[in-house]
């Protein structure tokens, strides 16, 4: 169903408002740093509003997607393709990160003096990293109570409960249809709340950016700028070359796709959190013609298992710290680092500062690089997290469209038409 959408005045378009708010936040942070630091509650408040809705939206989306799929063979097929795609592309991101950091060598010559660093800055992350064992990770999938996952906000626990509920509804057959309809209506309510919350996104983006620039300053990065520039360059190459080629192979342009999700990208840029864009991404993927079942499986799962930006960051940061501390890492050590990072990148899902925690977990598992050197990156991490979140978001969106194309849910012609003129979704899911 396609309908004409009336043009809005430019100042009422959300992505324009968010962009202007980000620019205003940068200016306040640069010229009035004290004021910028005091605006932190604006960003924190908006992120809390969005996180409040993530668990119920993911739960309803996953339950509806699985329970409405009558063919369980199709469910297994889509799940298998999704995991395979995630592992291949995530590993490719790690390899690219390792290659670029070895070519650029941003940490060589830094000759870091560990005694000059505050060990307390990295101690908390190291303690979290030690807790990320394989057994703890599996046990952490199971919430203490059925509703405990919604209280903790752990996305993997929400996924676990949602899958169980979805299969339970499927096994009920026709008796489960009323429950499925109820979940449809509940999801519409949560998206309605999200439409209200997203109107204050410019305020949240303004506060978050003003705090970041006011606290750390643009000029306080010094020699770490080489690592940051290398990371942004590598992430850009991954998005436009790797994901661009994948998109082209599936019949669509990565540039048109980025234009389609520009509101979500600016939201992530302002808040440094890809979670703030999750509800919007679910809607945007459905507007492209991807089925609700595929979107319900791929998008939430990708937030835990398809962290391309985090993988690039971990590979580059770990080798950078080795270079900065003059720690030799030969090919065998870097292969070990690659294998460990493939696991640890999944282990910190739902943990505050996940990108930094996964880096700590990787260093703990691959002895050699001093864990104390993490303190060098604490101040820089806030600037890196924006690029990590943007790359993760784009990677998950592309994955959803690719899986949907593999399943022949949307044709090449329909997909490109929807990229130009997005579908107006009906009231019912």
Number of domains: 1
State the helicity in percent bands: over 70%
Total of helices:
20
CATH architecture: Orthogonal Bundle
How would you state the average pLDDT, rounded? 79
Total number of beta strands: 0
The poorly predicted ranges are: 1-5, 347-352
Structural class: mainly alpha
What is the string of helix and strand elements? HHHHHHHHHHHHHHHHHHHH
Shape assignment? globular
**Superfamily (CATH H level) name:** Sodium:dicarboxylate symporter
Separation, N- and C-terminal Cα atoms: 13 Å
Largest sheet: none
* Proportion of beta-strand residues: under 5%
CATH topology-level name: Proton glutamate symport protein
Give a written overview of the molecule.
The chain is mainly α and 429 residues long. It has one domain (10-420): Orthogonal Bundle (Proton glutamate symport protein). It has 20 helices and no strands. The protein has helices at 14-31, 33-38, 40-67, 72-104, 120-130, 134-140, 148-152, 155-171, 177-197, 201-216, 225-249, 254-260, 262-271, 278-287, 292-305, 308-324, 331-347, 354-365, 378-406, 412-420. Helix 3 (40-67) packs across helix 15 (292-305). The longest helix has 33 residues, at 72-104. It is globular, with a radius of gyration of 22 Å. The relative contact order is 0.18.
């Amino acid at each position: 169903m396609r309908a004409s959408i009336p043009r809005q005045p430019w100042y009422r378009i959300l992505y324009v408002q968010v962009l202007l708010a980000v620019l205003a936040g940068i200016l306040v942070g640069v010229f009035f740093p004290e004021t910028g630091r005091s605006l932190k509650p604006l960003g924190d408040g908006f992120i809390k509003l969005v996180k409040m809705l993530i668990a119920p939206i993911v739960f309803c989306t996953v339950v509806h997607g699985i329970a409405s799929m009558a063919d369980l063979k199709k469910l297994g097929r889509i799940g298998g393709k999704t995991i395979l795609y995630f592992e291949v592309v995530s590993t490719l991101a790690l390899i690219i990160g390792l290659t670029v950091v070895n070519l650029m060598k941003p940490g060589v010559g830094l000759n870091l003096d560990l005694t000059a660093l505050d060990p307390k800055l990295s101690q908390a992350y190291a303690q979290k990293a030690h807790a990320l064992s394989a057994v703890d990770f599996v046990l952490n999938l199971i919430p203490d109570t059925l509703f405990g996952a919604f209280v903790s906000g752990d996305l993997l626990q929400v996924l676990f409960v949602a899958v169980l509920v979805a299969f339970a509804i499927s096994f009920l057959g026709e008796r489960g249809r009323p429950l499925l309809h109820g979940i449809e209506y509940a999801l519409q309510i949560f998206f309605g709340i999200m439409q209200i919350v997203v109107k204050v996104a410019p305020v949240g983006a303004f506060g978050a950016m003003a705090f970041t620039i006011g606290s750390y300053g643009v000029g306080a990065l010094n020699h770490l700028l080489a690592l940051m520039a290398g990371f942004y360059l590598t992430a850009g190459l991954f998005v436009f070359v790797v994901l661009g080629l994948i998109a082209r192979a599936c019949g669509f342009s990565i540039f048109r796709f980025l234009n389609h999700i520009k509101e979500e990208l600016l939201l992530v840029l302002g808040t440094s959190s890809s979670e703030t864009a999750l509800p919007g991404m679910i809607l945007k993927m459905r507007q492209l013609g991807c089925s609700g079942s595929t979107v319900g499986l791929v998008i939430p799962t990708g937030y835990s298992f398809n962290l391309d930006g985090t993988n690039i960051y971990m590979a580059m940061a770990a080798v950078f710290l080795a270079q900065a501390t003059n720690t030799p890492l030969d090919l065998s050590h870097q292969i070990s680092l690659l294998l460990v990072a493939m696991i640890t990148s999944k282990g910190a899902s739902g943990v505050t500062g996940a990108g930094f925690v996964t880096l700590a977990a990787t260093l703990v598992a691959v002895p050699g690089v001093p864990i104390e050197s993490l303190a060098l990156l604490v101040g820089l991490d806030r600037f890196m997290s924006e690029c990590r979140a943007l790359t993760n978001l784009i990677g998950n969106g592309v994955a959803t469209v690719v899986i949907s194309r593999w399943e022949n849910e949307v044709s090449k012609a329909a997909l490109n038409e929807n990229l130009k003129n997005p579908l107006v979704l009906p009231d019912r899911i």
